């Protein structure tokens, strides 16, 4: 009974490819997020969705497109992958806009 | 053992010691703060939170102290155990739904 799950856990792909990461939460939360963690462990918000509506869109290249088919799912699609996109991507959810419950992460490696 | 802000990213302690992890936050308007623990290969996990109308909050073996005058947050872990080894992040709320993370401190506990 995982609270926030992501697939895949590891993703290795070549530059220029398009890939997607999926996220699901079974906590009944209204808000979901995508965070990026770089090699120095710095965690930065990318997107936030509240009830399927985009709330936060940080200065992320438009190659990144989040999609929320329902409030339990928030997927991240990345076009034309670049070397600098290599990172760990975390999905998270929250009910009260404060405590985030994080998924296990997806380690993306672009070669 | 005690870390000093973000200039000492690794804190090494002996099992049984008390640990103090410090964090300097940036926004004087931030009103909610969270400490997260991230173990290797996992997502950040909530430890404890505190609101700006408090200066201390205790949990099980952990205490968070907030000094708004100098914009300083600390996490104290009593009787540190090897299982406490992880990277610890402080996070502050900045505006609607935006939780900003600090750069993290790695805690190493040796038996």
Give a written overview of the molecule.
- The complex is a heterodimer of chains A (111) and B (111).
- In chain A, 0% of the residues lie in helices and 57% in strands.
- The N and C termini of chain A lie far apart (34 Å).
- With 111 residues, chain A is mainly beta.
- Chain A has strands spanning 4-7, 10-13, 19-25, 31-37, 43-50, 53-57, 64-70, 73-78, 87-94, 101-102, 106-110.
- Classes of the chains: A mainly beta (111), B mainly beta (111).
- At the A-B interface, β5 and β10 of A face β3, β4, β8 and β9 of B.
Radius of gyration of chain B: 13 Å
Report the principal-axis shape of chain B: globular
**SS field, number of helical segments of chain B:** 0
| Average residue pLDDT of chain B | 89
What distance separates the N and C termini of chain A? 34 Å
Helical percentage of chain B:
under 10%
- In quaternary terms, these chains amount to heterodimer
Proportion in β-strands of chain B: over 45%
Structural class of chain A: mainly beta
């Amino acid at each position: 009974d995982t609270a926030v799950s992501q697939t895949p856990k590891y993703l290795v792909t070549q530059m220029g490819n398009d890939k997607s990461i999926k996220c699901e939460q079974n906590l009944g939360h209204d808000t979901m997020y995508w965070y990026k963690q770089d090699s120095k462990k710095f965690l930065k918000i990318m997107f936030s969705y509240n009830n399927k509506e985009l709330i936060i869109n940080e200065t992320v290249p438009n190659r990144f497109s989040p999609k929320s088919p329902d409030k339990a799912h928030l997927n991240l699609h990345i076009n034309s992958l670049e070397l600098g996109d290599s990172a760990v991507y975390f999905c998270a959810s929250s009910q009260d806009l404060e405590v985030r419950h994080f998924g296990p992460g997806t380690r993306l490696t672009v070669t | 053992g005690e870390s000093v802000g973000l200039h000492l990213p690794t804190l090494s302690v002996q099992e049984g010691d008390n640990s103090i992890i410090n964090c300097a936050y940036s926004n004087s308007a931030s009103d909610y703060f969270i400490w997260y623990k991230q173990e290797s290969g996992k997502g950040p996990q909530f430890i404890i939170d505190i609101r700006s109308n408090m200066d201390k909050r205790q949990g099980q073996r952990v205490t968070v102290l907030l000094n708004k005058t100098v914009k300083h947050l600390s996490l104290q872990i009593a009787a540190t155990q090897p299982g406490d080894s992880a990277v610890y992040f402080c996070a502050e709320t900045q505006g609607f739904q935006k939780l900003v993370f600090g750069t993290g401190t790695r805690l190493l506990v040796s038996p």
